[in-house]
Each structure stands twice: as C-alpha cells, then as structure tokens.
Amino acid sequence: MIKKGMTRQIVLHYFLVVFLTILLVEMVFLFAIRTYYYDGISNYLQSSFDNTSAPTNSRDLISTYTLDKAEVQVLDLKGNVIQNSTPFRLDKPIQTGDIPQALTGSTGRWIGKQAGTGEDVMAVTRMIQINGDKSYLVRYVTSLELVNQKLFYITLVSTGIGIIILIIVLIVSVGLANSIVKPINNIINVSTLMAKGDFNVRIKGNYPHEIGDLASTLNYMADEIVQSNQVKDDFISSISHELRTPLTGIKGWSETLVSGGFDPEETKLGMSIISKETDRLIGLVEEMLDFSKLQQNQMKLVMGEVNMKELLQETMLNVWAKAEQKHISLNLQPGERPFLVYADGNRLKQVFLNLVDNAIKFSPDGSIISLMITEIAPDKVRISVKDPGIGISPEFLEKVKDRFFQVNPNQGGTGLGLAITQQIVKLHQGEMHIESELDQGTTVSVDLPLLDNQQPSGSLA
C-alpha cells in the first residue's frame, strides 16, 4: 500500500486517467466488434432474400428460402407461424420488433432470446408477395450462441490486455512519482536542517527542471545566510571595538579627573577628550539608528529647495579641520549656474559629509580632493567627489555599498556609511555610482533630479 503523500496522489492520478482511457477504448472496441459480427450475420441473412426469386406457390416458400444454420418461418401478416423448417411450433403470434418493420416494406431485424428455449438469436424478416396478390412474412432465425462465445472470448482477452497495461502503468507511475518525490523529500530534509540553524548542509544531486532550480535557490540562500552571518559577526566584532575605544577613553579620563590634583590645562585637555569621544559614540549610535530607520522605511525627509553649491560649501567647512590635519586641499567646481534640487538638505549634507570624509580618510597627505557639480541632462545634476586615494579593487567594488561590508576592518567604522548614503540617495529618486582603480583613486557620483522638473509635495515619510 502506498502511504499518503504526493506519491499516492501522482500514482492515483496517472492510474485513473489511464484506467478511464482504457475503459473507453474497451467499450468502443467491443461495441465495434459486436456490431461487426452482428451486421455480418444480418447481411448474410438478407442476401438470401436478395438472391432468391419469390416462388409462385406459397407451399414452396420454405424450400425456396432454406438456408444453412438458420431456421425459416413463414408467417401471415398477423404474425402467426404458418410454416416452419423445424419441428418446433409456436402457438402464439410472434410479436418481436422485426415484424412491424417488415410490414412497412423494409427488412426487419431483431435480436433477443428465443421464446421457450431462452437462446440468444437474431431474426431477419421480409414481406414476400405470391403472384403479386397474397403476402406472407418470411423470417430467418439463427442462433447467436457461437458468436456470443467468440465475443466473450474477445472481451476476456481485451480485458486481460487492459489489466496488464494498468499494471505496467502502475509500476511506471510509482517510479515516476518516486523520481519526483524523492528529490522533494531530500530538499525538505535539508530545509528542515536549515530551519534549525544548520546552514552548512547543502542539497546534493543534479535534479532537472524546476526541482533543480529549487535546490539551487535553497543552496544559494544558505550561502547568502552564511555570508550574512559572517558579515554580522564581523560587524559585531567591529562595532564592539569601535565602542570600546571611546568608552575606554571616557572612563579613563573620568576616573583621572575625579581623583583631582590637576591644573586647569590638564583638566581642559581631559574634558576635551571626553567630549570628543562622546561625539564619536553619538555618531556611531546615530549611524546605526539611521540604518535601522532606512531598513524599516521609517526615515522622514523634510523636503524643500536646496542649493547644491551652498550645501557643498557647508560640507567643506565641516570637514576642513580634518582635511587640514593631513594637509589635504578641497577643491569645489560649482558649475555655471545654481543647481536647485527638491530634497532634505540635512540628509543630503549627511550624504556628502560621508563621501568627503571617506575621501579624506583614504587619500595620502598633501593630496587634492575635487568636488564637481555638472548638468548631465536638462532635468538632472551630477555631484562628484574625486580623490587620488588608495582606490578599491574590482573584486570589492560591487560590495562596498553592502551593509556592514568593510574592505579593511582594521581601519575602523561600522561598514554602514555607504549603505546609508545609497539609501538616502534612493529616497531622493537619485542614483549613486562608484568608479575606482586600485592605487589610482576613487570617484563617487550622485545623480539627483533638478527642481525645475519636480513639484514640491511637503514632507515625505
């Protein structure tokens, strides 16, 4: 017995379809065979009427229409038997269906059981006129027992063939069902292990078509989860280190200042370090909060008219001190006219602060970082930040915008900066592109729609 499940369903469906098909074919075949044999007998009996001339005397009817393996009966028009080629006599008029047909002038045919004997017979009747005056009914009656036996034998043989075909179909359908169900069961077992947290298991086997696609998708999903978990672990390790450093500085100077005995300059230095490290902690927390809001689509944009030249100038002022420490020059090329966009000025400023800060961080001392504003279409402006820094290798270029990804984790940071930047740009219906060559520098471009082709609509959530 096949247990419940897809195997049983597939087998039952295939078996039912084939069974109904064979049953229909058997019925049509047996009906056609029966019709063929019965029509052959009927035509043979009728041919005796067609090939025989009517006698001139009613007493010659029996001898004229005598036929091998058939009983000849002569009836009056009321169905009473007048003459019979056999000793068998009927006391009652014959009222079978062939009699009314013959009375209409056609050849009547009837198949049924012989009265008295119960034998299966066929009767063919035709009306005959003697000398164009007196009419009689000549009736042939022949047994169908031998024909029915042959038809029964054919039925048995065809039924046996049908049963053999059904057995073959059952075996084939079980094999076919197993070829489908076994890979699915394998996928289910592996998926169950994945659901329990074991992402090192993989679906093995080269399965065809959709099942193969499903197996490949699950294996790909497991690879992505493993990679994501590794990135998450790296992020936790990195953020723990990032948080520990300022916290250690704050705690150390706090304990030092509490102990007392310092002159005002040392106290001022300690408080300055505590303030600086606190700002660093706040920046890390805000970065993670921003990313969380973006992931949950909860970041609110306060939209308004923004002059990109003024925004970049403010950005340069904010990072000027950091650039001075590395003797880096910031060069702004503002373009030929003011470029106005409909945006959240604070969030766009956050974008370019992050891009310029990265450029300073990865550029050598004494280099020049260029900020350029160019119109690339009547309705679009491009802001580019170009640095001559260390660049990014091609293998990492597509990954640097992924969350938590860091080319070099030892350089600090959360790996969220570019991911947040890209999401903010997308919220402004913009695009961000990165072009870089290892040891040659990097250019990050942000394309934004101009205000001329955008209607203000207030705050966006």
TrEMBL record:
| Entry's Gene Ontology molecular function annotations | ATP binding; phosphorelay sensor kinase activity
Mark the transmembrane ranges: 12-37, 151-177
Domain of life, source organism: Bacteria
Domain Histidine kinase as annotated: residue spans: 238-452
* Localization terms from the record: Cell membrane
Q: Report domain HAMP positions.
A: 178-230
Topology in membrane? Multi-pass membrane protein
**Signal peptide residues on this chain, from the entry's feature table:** none
Tell me which SUPFAM superfamilies the record gives.
ATPase domain of HSP90 chaperone/DNA topoisomerase II/histidine kinase, HAMP domain-like, Homodimeric domain of signal transducing histidine kinase
**Gene Ontology CC terms, in alphabetical order:** plasma membrane
Q: Which reaction does it catalyse?
A: ATP + protein L-histidine = ADP + protein N-phospho-L-histidine
CDD domains according to UniProt? HAMP (cd06225), HisKA (cd00082)
Q: What is this protein called?
A: histidine kinase
